[in-house]
Amino acid sequence: MDDYRQIADTYAAAIxxxxxxxxxxxxxxxxxxxAHSIASxxxxxxxxxxxxxGLVVGETGRGTFVRAIPPPEAPALTEPARVAVDLELNFSxxxxxxxxxxxxxxxxxxxxxxxxxxxxxxxTGTPLLRDAASKMLARAGxxxxxxxxxxxxxxRQAIAVALDMLVPNGGRLGVEPLTYxxxxxxxxxxxxxxxxxxxxxHGLNPTPADLDGVHAVYMQPTLHNPLGVTMPRARxxxxxxxxxxxxxxxxxxxxxxxxxxxLPPVAPQRTVVVxxxxxxxxxxxxxxxxxxxxxxxERAARAARAMGVGAQHFAMQAAARWLTDGVVERIxxxxxxDSRVRQQIARASLRVEGDPGAYHCWWRLPGRWTAxxxxxxxxxxxxxxxxxxxxxxxxxxxxxxVRLSLSAPPxxxxxAAIETLARLAAGDPYxxxxx
Length: 435
Hints:
Elements: H1 3-17, E1 25-26, H2 29-36, H3 40-52, E2 56-59, E3 63-66, E4 85-86, H4 97-104, H5 111-117, H6 127-137, E5 150-152, H7 155-166, E6 172-175, H8 181-190, E7 193-196, E8 199-200, E9 203-204, E10 216-219, H9 233-246, E11 250-253, E12 271-276, E13 288-291, H10 297-307, H11 313-324, H12 327-349, E14 360-364, H13 371-380, E15 383-384, E16 386-387, E17 401-405, H14 411-426
Helix pairs in contact: 1-3, 2-3, 6-11, 7-10, 12-14
């Protein structure tokens, strides 16, 4: 019987025409059934069809809401927002940074040097780059073997290679309940089941039983995205023991590690560390890094070659210069100061959570707001923020919160945007809307 689809078509048209706006709340299913003189089971099918089309989102205990934006064609949070102030995509390019990087590249643009960059190269780079990358990734007494480092075009490709190494198509990957959205996209394309693992205020906290049947674990133990929390050393040791007992490898994403306290990788003997220059420098000209345990080094290189995601020769040449002449460390030092200034701006007006040195923060919204409604209302003010649903592994399990990325706007623009969000949160969201 297709009657439920006809009703769903009516609501889809109302959304397309703007009569139902992003963030509007649909009636509870029983009320909906009575209003349309249909059975409760039919109403459930209507709501299910609207969710399947990506037009609404259900929030446990709160109801069903029109999505803030249509489902993106590309993975969420990887492209700039189409609004005036972008607090959704997390990237930072400081004043004067381009001039500093350009000066470092002067010699690379000579014709005789550039000729080398125009030729193909290996995913394992050059000895100079391998040594420089090893020193950059080193922390708390740990330093990866330079000979095993593999270079990709960006950090997302490094993650994809690590997953290809450790998780078969149709396999199971343990993750934090709120995880990097790109992981969700890669998993969907490869038929990988994401298994949300127990997590508390200190980070992942699974038992060996929680890892039963899991092929690998992906985690961000340092300045977790989106929560901004960092796993302390004691928890890292506990988690390493659990991984050892369960005999499960891990992928540790250290993309924000340069902003945080110097802490060692979790279980380095069984962990593939992935990173890039995207946050340290910029996403526009970057290189991704894969630092596997020695036993997995050849597998990492083979996977990167097979997937065709090796870094471009020019980008590797540029990275080698920036790493060896001090440009990367100088910019990172400036960003460690800049991130704290931006956190102070956010905390002056909002009760946000997370590390005060991170470039992002977690904001639990007032109870009268849903995350979807708030994202839509902020967009109407020209401000893009990220709903918790973008990070949630299981639909309907996302908290009533948003992630704010603080790194991109100029400071005064950021201050004005934060003050606007504070005023917005103090107001009232949309009421329940009927067609």
